[in-house]
Structure formats: C-alpha cells, structure tokens
C-alpha cells in the first residue's frame, strides 16, 4: 500500500492513478492525509478487503504534497553511516552509546516535486530513509519495532551549514535544517509488505545528473529497529511521527573543494522501492 497526499487529500497510489480514500471509503475515513496515521490499523483492514466504492483516477505528480504533512514530532539522526562519519572526520570506530538526535521543524516539510528558495549561506544535501510511525510506540524493543512502523518514504535533509554550525555553544542543527522547503518528503508512505527487505534498500541522489550519494540502508550504524527502540525509550513516538534516519557519504560540505547548492540546480533523490524526489532551487 502506498499512501500519499494529493493536493491536501489522502490517496492510495495504484500504478499511475490515485484512489481518494475519503470518497472510496464512503466517508469512513476523512480526507486529511495526516489523520490516517491515527487509524492506521483500520486503514490496512479496509484496504485489504478491497471494498472501495470509487475508482482510481489519473493525477499530476506535481500536485503531491509531503507524504506526511503535519507530524507532531520529527526526529532526525546524525552520523548514522560509517563512511559519512569518515568523510566528516568523526571517529565511530567504537559504536556511540546513543545515535546523535535532533529535529527538523514540521513547517519545513515539502512535497516530492518542489522548488526551494535558497537562503543566504551554504546549502547542502542529505538523502535519507524516513520512517513513519503507525502506532503509539512507548519503550518498545528492537525485536518488535517494525510492528510499530506504518511505512517508509524518501526524505531530503537540506541543511544550511553556516546557521547549523554557528556557536558559541551547541550548534543550531534544528534551525539550519528547517528553512522553508528543507524537508522534501514522499512521494508516498510505502508499507513494509511492498518491500523485499525494508532494512536493506539502495539509497542515493544525483545533482544535475551527477551521482553524489550511493549506498544501502543496511550500512546504518543504528538500524531502523534500533532507532525506534532508542527513541521510544525517551519519548513516546506517536502515530504519524517521522524519523529521518541519517545520510550516507557524499554530501557537499565534505568534498574537496566543498560543493553547495546553487540556483538552477536539480537534486534527484531516490530509494529503492520507495520512489523519487525532484527538488529544484532558485535564488532569493
């Protein structure tokens, strides 16, 4: 099942068409995409019964909004791939006791085809697997963590590095990563049964056709189940919350010379089985 946000309405993507959930369920579910996650188990049962009272319709992919438009909590994980740690000169030869965790503010979330206005500074890219929570998750173990995941989607953790790394005391990670449009998310939330091995997916991005990042999610230091266990040990995860799980090697700021996003660039981010984001950039 692939759940998406089409012009603010909850839909299921079926091949090249979209099924409006509110209309197809005869009003059993509302039109708000975010509200579906609070009734995720009911949605799965309804979809499995095949009782839709409407037909899928063609749609324009440019009308897709963020697959999860208004999560109550957005968690983000730093330095979760060893090669990314190495390019940033961070020693993870011994596994850290906790995954570095910060947030992106929900107002930065954007759809899978969006144009972002570049702020002043140095804007970098970070393609990430994003986990979407489907049940209240409070102190679960890694062994049971997948049962609490509604699905997975593609995310970009765009980052303005000057703001992010400004001092004098702890850095402004959340601010530097939360400018408008800095969280492209989508095109859909894909359930685990649509994926062969949800813990091992190819992930990467291209900038103007040139490959920048290319890895597999199985290379994470902390796997998805481990992240869910660690986060839920501190803060209950709520239906519709999202977790950006970290980026592999290949970001712009660690290149020689560094390379940052410019007006006119096109960034294409993709994850095997989940889909593609296309983000273009313009000047202020």
UniProtKB/TrEMBL annotation:
Domain Fumarylacetoacetase-like C-terminal: 74-281
Recorded coiled-coil stretches: none
Keyword Hydrolase applies: yes
UniProtKB keywords: Hydrolase, Metal-binding
GO molecular function, one term: hydrolase activity
A Pfam short name: FAA_hydrolase
Family: Belongs to the FAH family.
PANTHER family: FUMARYLACETOACETATE HYDROLASE DOMAIN-CONTAINING PROTEIN 2A, FUMARYLACETOACETATE HYDROLASE DOMAIN-CONTAINING PROTEIN 2A-RELATED
Protein name: Fumarylacetoacetate hydrolase family protein
């Amino acid at each position: 099942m692939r759940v998406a946000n089409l012009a603010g309405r909850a839909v299921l993507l079926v091949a090249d068409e979209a099924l409006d959930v509110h209309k197809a369920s005869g009003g059993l579910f509302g039109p708000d995409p975010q509200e579906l996650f609070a009734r995720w188990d009911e949605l799965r049962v309804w979809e499995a019964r095949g009782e839709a009272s409407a037909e899928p319709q063609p749609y324009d992919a440019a009308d897709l909004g963020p697959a999860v438009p208004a999560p109550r909590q957005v968690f983000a994980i730093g330095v979760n791939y060893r090669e990314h740690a190495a390019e940033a000169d961070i020693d993870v030869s011994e596994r850290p006791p906790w995954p570095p965790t910060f947030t992106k503010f929900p107002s930065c979330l954007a759809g899978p085809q969006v144009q972002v206005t570049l702020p002043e500074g140095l804007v970098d890219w970070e393609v990430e697997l994003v986990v979407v929570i489907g049940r209240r998750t409070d102190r679960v173990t890694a062994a049971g963590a997948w049962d609490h995941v509604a699905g997975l989607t593609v995310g970009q953790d765009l980052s303005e590095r000057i703001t992010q790394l400004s001092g004098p005391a702890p850095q402004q990670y959340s601010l530097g990563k939360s400018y408008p449009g800095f969280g492209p998310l989508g095109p859909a939330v894909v359930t685990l049964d649509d994926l062969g091995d949800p813990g091992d997916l190819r992930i990467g991005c291209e900038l103007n056709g040139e490959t920048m990042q290319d890895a597999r999610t199985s290379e994470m230091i902390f796997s998805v189940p481990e992240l869910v266990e660690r986060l839920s040990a501190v803060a209950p995860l709520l239906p519709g919350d999202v977790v950006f799980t970290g980026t592999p090697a290949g970001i712009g700021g660690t290149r020689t010379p560094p390379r940052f996003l410019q007006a006119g660039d096109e960034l294409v981010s993709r994850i095997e089985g989940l889909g593609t984001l296309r983000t273009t950039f313009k000047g202020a």
